[in-house]
Amino acid sequence: MFSLTPGDLSGNILDCAAGPASFNAEATRQGSKVVSCDPIYRFGTEEIRARIHATFETLVANASARREEFVWRDIESPRQLGEVRMAAMQLFLEDFPQGLEQGRYTTDGLPNLRFEDGKFDLALCSHFLFTYSDQLSTGFHVAAIEEMCRVAHEVRVFPLLKSYGGPSPHLDPVMDALGARDYRVEIRQVPYEFQRGGNEMLSVPG
Ligand SMILES: C[S@@+](CC[C@H](N)C(=O)[O-])C[C@H]1O[C@@H](n2cnc3c(N)ncnc32)[C@H](O)[C@@H]1O
Hints:
Layout: H1 6-9, E1 12-16, H2 23-29, E2 33-37, H3 45-65, H4 78-101, E3 105-106, E4 120-126, H5 138-151, E5 152-158, H6 171-180, E6 186-189, E7 200-205
Parallel strand pairs: 1-2, 1-4, 2-3, 4-5
Antiparallel strand pairs: 5-7, 6-7
Helix pairs in contact: 2-4, 3-4, 5-6
The structure holds S-adenosylmethionine (SAM).
């Protein structure tokens, strides 16, 4: 999703809106330094586990109903998508208690991050900005990206599509607003594509 290189993975990484995903667990195991933030981390492990299980069948049913909107290449079917997600979430749940103690999971919600300026080399945000275009305003997107730029030397956001239904209407206005504030915003192609057409990320040096 983010074209991460070994150099990227050797820096300090902040994962925003990180959710119950396995990036922190897997990257930490491989020696990377990752902090993940998401308001859901205020809930306990069992509450998050219950929520994951409660939404599993909906996820598979939605993917089945909208099959043509996805590229079934690495993941071959909606059922396999569910299994891959569950395996990732299981890795997260196993890592979460220890990660919380180590300060690798924090409850920060965009657009307010507790970290000092320039603390991270890279801030990532996947499947939140642009994905929830119907719920989040252009102003929210700009404020969130600026806040990530404050705490990191580079920000990457993926994908640039709405959750269902094509390109985000916020992309052009967000790029214009950031450009007007002297950020050098760039769209870069990435090798990952699951949502059809969703193979681009926004890269913004902080
Ligand atoms: C679809 S999930 C994405 C999880 C993960 N990044 C991924 O790609 O699998 C969206 C996440 O955004 C989180 N979220 C909601 N409001 C947020 C906010 N204001 N700041 C940061 N995260 C937020 C939700 O709790 C949820 O875990």
